[in-house]
Design goal:
The chain is mostly beta strands. The protein is 6% helix and 43% strand. The protein has 2 domains: 1-31; 32-376, Methylamine Dehydrogenase, Chain H (7 Propeller).
Length: 379
């Protein structure tokens, strides 16, 4: 069996089971890539690549007068990331050298790119969704939504999915850009859509979790969550995990379309804008209360919390026994997954709004001062 066939077979198993994503992807030879905002279609935020015990800055890529709020993705040794000034960059993972740059006129990118089949997909804050050649950055097609796009893209069969602040989830043919279907809610969509089996999950600013039939573009169920959210839902097994602007964190059984449990900090509940990283045991996320929270994924009981100097907008990534997250205080933190103790930190200067990507033994993250950092083992 070829590597491509093996990867396709394993991906099918993962979507059917909803478990074992990291191990299966690594065995299929596709574990080194981080092609979507949260690493995979389930938005788990769990790395399949290991990181060295001791991290150092291997390279920096600086955009003069630039700023990054989006998160990078990495495919086949190339880092892709968009900035607020309208630059979409492809960088060599090993060296940080620029392979190409695409300039979007009078706009910028908050959304994270997504990469599939040699194409890069990303939306801008004027509502235009782009498809570009991953090799040279040349535009292949574009599609106009009616408002800003914060959502990263995800994929279903031959289609690409993204949400817009016009309250619409769009499903387009990934090759042609033609509209397959669209699904409308009563308020903005800021999250990246999460895909499992034949379903898509969208946590909306209308205060509902939407469960959508991907074949038809129609609602299967929706679940009341009491408050708006722009957090990307993470799927582990039968459950979807996400936080809200009211400071509540939910576990929803998506097969039953019922809330399994919800958590809020009894001390001081503040908005949760950090998308969670989840495993069978853990649900870990940051908050505007300046804390990283770790909950038992089965019960919702808080296991530990870690305090930072400023609010947390970045989403964490679980790498083995460590959790990595960037803070608006300009620090990148590595925490012990099991007890929340700080194991390492790096002071970058500018704040981190975007989240890390992990690929091939390297961690990549960008800050609001226009710098992309790559961490790895010192040679």
């Amino acid at each position: 069996m070829t590597k491509k066939a093996a990867a396709t077979f394993v991906s099918a198993l993962v979507l059917l089971s909803g478990v074992g994503t990291a191990c299966l992807a690594a065995k299929a030879g596709g574990g080194e890539n981080w092609p979507l905002f949260r690493g995979n279609a389930l938005s788990t935020g769990v790395a399949t690549s290991e990181l060295p015990d001791d991290l150092t800055v291997l390279w920096r890529f600086r955009v003069k007068d630039g700023a990054f709020e989006g998160s990078p993705v990495v495919v086949d040794g190339v880092v892709y990331i968009g900035d607020l000034d309208g630059g979409l960059y492809a960088l060599d993972l090993n060296t940080g050298a620029k392979k190409w740059e695409h300039r979007a006129k009078e706009t910028g990118f908050i959304a994270s790119p997504a990469v599939r089949d040699g194409r890069v997909f990303i939306g801008d804050y004027d509502g235009r969704f782009y498809c570009l050649n991953a090799v040279d950055g040349k535009p292949l097609w574009g599609f106009e939504s009616e408002a800003q796009i914060d959502s990263g893209a995800n994929f279903y069969n031959d289609n690409v999915l993204f949400g817009s602040q016009d309250g619409t989830l769009y499903c387009l043919n990934a090759k042609s850009g033609e509209l397959t279907w669209k699904y409308q809610i009563d308020d903005q969509i800021r999250c990246t859509p999460t895909v499992v089996e034949e379903r898509c999950f969208v946590a909306g600013c209308d205060g509902r979790l939407h469960i959508i039939d991907l074949a038809k573009g129609e609602s299967l169920h929706d679940v009341e969550i009491d408050s708006p959210t722009g957090v990307t839902p993470a799927v582990q097994g039968d459950h979807v995990f996400f936080g809200t602007e009211a400071g509540e964190f939910f576990s929803v059984n998506w097969k039953q379309a019922k809330v399994a449990w919800k958590w809020s900090d009894p001390r001081a509940s503040q908005a949760l804008r950090s998308s969670p990283a989840v495993t069978r045991e853990w649900a870990i996320f940051g908050g505007r209360d300046k804390k990283v929270h770790a909950l038992d994924a089965k019960t919702g009981k808080e296991k530990w919390s870690f305090s930072t100097r400023k609010r947390l907008e970045s989403s964490p990534v679980i790498v083995g026994g460590r959790v990595f997250i960037g803070g608006t205080d300009g620090r990148l933190y590595a925490l012990n997954r099991d007890n929340g103790q700080k194991m390492w930190s790096y002071e970058a200067g500018g704040g981190f709004i975007g989240s890390p990507a992990v690929s091939a033994g390297r961690l990549i993250i960008a800050n609001d001062e226009g710098v992309v950092f790559c961490f790895g083992a010192k040679e």
